[in-house]
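Data card: per-record layout.
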Amino acid sequence: MEKKEQQRATTVQEQICNLKDLGLQFDDTDKAKDVLSRVSYYRLIKAYGIEYKKNDGTFVENTKFKDILKLYEFDAALRHILSPNIEMIEIHLRAAIANYIGVKYGPLAYLDQSIIQSSEYYEDLMNNIHDMVEKNSNSPIVRNFRTNYKDGNLPIYALVEICSFGDISKLFKILKNADKKEIATSFGVGYTYLESWMETLVFVRNVCAHYGRLYNARIKKRPKLYKQYYQAGVANGMVFAVILCIKHLLDEKQRCRFLDDISEHICQMNDEGIDISRIGAKKEWKKLLYDGNEQTK
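The structure for this 297-residue chain is written out next.
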């Protein structure tokens, strides 16, 4: 197949003219110019305008620029709800691994391959750890242990603070099942679920960090769900499934705040005419969110 030539870059005014030619309507052209000067055409129109396009590339009748902007803003707000809660879970996992492994096996146990059950990721993980330590060689944490301790290796409780979330998830994945089970008790979930959910959260966290699209997006690292969610028809490849996983990993106070924020946001989306099924939320979504919590709504 013959490859296409790169299209020339266009001005904001040309972008608006092109959108008008495709059938998009504008209530306020000056506002649209301002938006497209701050949010790229590719990020806004290509990612979110697709929801309003027909097969021939033109827009569905009566679609307005503000409809696409509204969807973009709701998706951004969803990321802003998920990100700090994923952060709390990530920090919790770092502490849980460090506290358990450090006490049971010793502060440098991660250097001993006998504590793991699978060598599949071990070599890559150790290389990543080495690279991360070198990258942070001027940080107070690394300098302290290199200067003041034999061999200069970082203990597990310091190491987990400079490793990526992805490497922390991989470290948990290759531990022995008995150890994973004990660590998972800190979250109140089974270790097979925790392992799956952490891989999913690493993926979603990276999407959020790069301001990617969650609305109508497919989650590549699909989480293992509880039976009742599968029975209710929850699709584990959409973001609502991730929301349910997050719910189970937060403590009671965090969970109540998170559920209220998410519930309010989904209700707003629905009220504004945004199709909430595109995030995986079905008719009984609120029951699924609050089921098992004292504040059932």
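Known properties of this structure: The chain has a mean pLDDT of 93. Residues 65-105 form the longest helix (41 residues).

See the next section for split statistics.
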